[in-house]
Amino acid sequence: MLQPSPKDKFTFGLWTVGNTGRDPFGLPTRPTLAPAQIVELLADVGGVHGVNFHDNDLIPIDASPAEADQIKSDFSKALKRAKLRVAMATTNLFSDPAFRDGAFTSNDPEVRAYALQKTMRAMDLGAEFGAQIYVFWGGREGCESDATKDPIEAEQRFRKALNFLCAYSIDRGYDFKFALEAKPNEPRGHIFFPTTGHYLALIHTLDHPDMVGVNPEVAHEHMAGLNFSHAVAQALAAGKLFHIDLNDQQFGRFDQDFRFGSADLKAAFFLVKLLEDHRYSGFKHFDAHAFRTADRDDVIEFARGCMRTYLILRAKAQAWNDDPTIKALLKKLPKPSKDLDALSDKYTRSHAQTILGMTFDRDALAARPLPYEALDQRTIEILMGV
């Protein structure tokens, strides 16, 4: 039950288990692995469904055509040996100095055209390996000072780029689902579309809103002190949860990308419960890094830990749903009312008049029991195995 299986749709990016341990203050602590070697590492992890990549994770930005062909050949062979697939692809529009002022929202029209070209070529690469989801993270789409950009103009530039790329996908017959990934800050001081809700508001303004959803990430919402489960719930309710990035993060810190569930276990529990209760069936991508102290064996333990924690929390969610104490506490909460809900679910003049004519006992409403402390404590006990 706690052994991961490809059926669980757990995936890892080349940049996650392939992370070298470098940070802004220190050099790499692990060797750089070729894409084929990273696939071999995931085969040693076991139970993984697939692997994801940015274009330049797979093919270096300055690789020759011959070098690119060799890398793709080696990568393809490794995937077959490991029985892994490519689930998601994306474009690196943040590392190269050309994107220092953004990609799709850059003030430079030549940079914006280059960003489109790079993304189209990356979509070709993703399609070549059978990716179904295409993620957009606008790491440089922002500013440090509002003196530098008109935010309405920047939003329009981003919208036009997405419309262009949706049309490109349709024209090429790729059948991609686009997933937009939000982040409040870092590496820019202020990133446009900082939360999942911002992207959900944008999607309905696009030419092909049916093609576009979101890829929320735990760390990106937790950085801003937000409740990640609420962002995911909004995406689920809108039918727009196309992909999800699982990791962990402490509030107020840099982007830590910790092993899933390692920083805020209760938040991770309610996230897993939400996904399982509402039968999310998409890919679950662990966009996380092992500690800088890790060697290859510990990186494997890190990857196994991400999956094992999810599976443990899935079992805990079922235990929560089945727990007699939880059930008894939930029965004490106010019950649904068909009559009252029918009145408030849809406006009619008659419904409004009926509600306006009702008499409410405020003291009685305020006195009804809401045993939320008991519910929360029982949740903690279930998580602690008591």
Overall mean pLDDT stands at 97
State which percent range the strand residues make up.
5-15%
Number of helices: 16
Oligomeric state of this protein: single chain
CATH domain topology of the largest domain: TIM Barrel
**Dominant shape:** globular
Query: What is the element string, with H for helices and E for strands?
Result: EHHEHHEHEEHEEHEHHEHEHHHHHH
Strand order of the largest sheet: 8-6-4-3-2-1-10-9
Q: Any idea what the CATH superfamily of the largest domain is called?
A: Divalent-metal-dependent TIM barrel enzymes
Largest sheet: 8 strands, parallel
Strand elements, count? 10
3D structure, described in words:
The protein is of the alpha/beta class and 386 residues long. It is built from 16 helices and 10 strands. It has helices at 14-17, 35-45, 55-58, 65-82, 109-128, 151-172, 196-203, 218-222, 228-237, 265-277, 296-322, 324-331, 338-345, 349-356, 362-367, 372-383, and strands spanning 10-13, 50-54, 85-90, 133-137, 142-143, 177-181, 190-191, 212-214, 244-246, 284-286. The chain is globular. 38% of the residues are buried.
